């Protein structure tokens, strides 16, 4: 049985669910006991899978978080694509960010803050995050191009995608390291407003 056009097959959806389960288990362990103290065996056991299955999805421990890093951006892009095209881009991005994070790991604020700190300070994971950034930009470009009425291969659209993702990343990293954290959605709003994207 084939999948509907544009929709993943049942097999692929199961693969995505398995990857996310591994990632969420790894995220919780890294947050609770630290990256160095967490072994691949810990992650596999926590996810209820064998080591062989873990390595089928992840080449190494540092690869386990990639789905967590990218899934929220994927939801953000989907939410942004649904927003009215005449809505100011800054408002649309903020509404999409709020919708994309509300039901995910940011609901557990302290665990999420620890996770963001791990992503920013563990070199192996930070490298994966930077590499994933290009793929996430590629997801965002068509949506921004459609809103701006510009070709997808224009330099300006790619710059806008890069700037937006960097602004969100900086806001979340700032939030993760604050002694008395502000509301992450408010920090993100300020970061996006600072770009003045509605004037572009």
TrEMBL record:
The lineage is: Bacteria, Bacillati, Actinomycetota, Actinomycetes, Kitasatosporales
> Transmembrane region positions?
none
Q: What residue stretch is flagged as signal peptide?
A: none
Which InterPro entries does the record cross-reference, listed alphabetically?
Homeodomain-like_sf, HTH-type_TetR-like_transc_reg, HTH_TetR, MftR_C
Which SUPFAM superfamilies does UniProt cross-reference here? Answer: Homeodomain-like
Question: Could you tell me which residue ranges the HTH tetR-type domain spans?
Answer: 16-76
Give the DNA-binding residues: 39-58
Going by the UniProt record, its keywords in alphabetical order are:
DNA-binding, Transcription, Transcription regulation
Q: Annotated Gene Ontology MF terms? A: DNA-binding transcription factor activity; transcription cis-regulatory region binding
Pfam families registered for this protein in UniProt: TetR_C_14, TetR_N
What is the protein's name according to its record?
HTH-type transcriptional repressor KstR2
């Amino acid at each position: 049985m084939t999948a509907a056009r544009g929709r993943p097959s049942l097999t692929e959806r199961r693969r995505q669910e398995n990857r996310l389960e591994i990632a969420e288990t790894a995220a919780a362990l890294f947050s609770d006991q630290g990256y160095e103290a967490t072994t691949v065996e810990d992650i596999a056991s926590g996810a209820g899978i064998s080591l062989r299955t873990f390595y089928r999805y992840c080449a190494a421990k540092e690869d386990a978080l990639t789905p967590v890093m990218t899934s929220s951006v994927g939801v953000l892009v989907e939410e942004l694509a649904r927003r009215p095209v005449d809505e100011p881009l800054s408002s649309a991005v903020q509404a999409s960010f709020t919708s994309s994070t509300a039901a995910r790991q940011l609901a557990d604020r302290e665990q999420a803050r620890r996770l963001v700190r791990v992503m920013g300070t563990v070199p192996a994971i930070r490298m994966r995050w930077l590499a994933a950034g290009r793929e996430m930009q590629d997801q965002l470009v068509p949506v921004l191009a459609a809103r701006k009425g510009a070709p997808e291969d224009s330099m300006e659209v790619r710059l806008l995608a890069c700037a937006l993702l960097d602004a969100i990343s900086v806001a979340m990293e700032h939030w993760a390291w604050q002694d008395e954290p502000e509301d992450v959605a408010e920090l993100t709003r300020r970061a996006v407003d600072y770009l003045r994207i509605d004037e572009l």
